[in-house]
Amino acid sequence: MLSPAMIDRLNEQINLEMFSSHLYLQMSCWCAYKSLDGCAAFLSQHADEEMIHKRRLIDYLQETGALAVLQGMEAPPSEFTSLKEMFEKIYAHEQFITSKINSLVHLANTEPDYSTLQFLQWYVAEQHEEEFLFKSILDKIKLIGVEGQGLFFIDREIKSIAATRTNRNNANASTAANV
Length: 179
What we know:
Protein name: Ferritin
Pfam families: Ferritin
GO molecular function, one term: oxidoreductase activity
Main location: cytoplasm
Strand content: under 5%
Number of helices: 5
Oligomer: single chain
Helix content: over 70%
Number of strands: 0
Number of domains: 1
CATH topology: Ferritin
CATH class: Mainly Alpha
Largest sheet: none
Distance between the termini: 30 Å
Domain Ferritin-like diiron: 1-145
């Protein structure tokens, strides 16, 4: 059974994951508007992943007999001055989400709630991967630049990242279906 404090914090995380999904979907729309099709596809894919993160949390709360509570949220920003600024905002957002996951882990460890602690380990690993991914995109933006043809090459590079992630996710789904 989860403590009331843990239920509240898991519900908070559900709503943060939902906001993350909306944020990335809005960013995808901005990229599509700017004809950055690779970035748009990547961010749309990432928005879907955030909804999966939200769903896992909801399922966990339901499995433990707790009530998942979805709340309203503020609209994400819809305008960005540049692709670089947008990815800087994403990286900062992922660092914020990591801090929230770490706080949840601390609470689970302090209570102690070993079941939730075990459940949250997937999120710890996922956040490490997310921060690494967006830091590497920012590194590529700094290396290639976003002026002139640089923007084209960055968009193409991010499209390649999206394709690689799609192939990996499809392979993982196929493996899981065969087990």
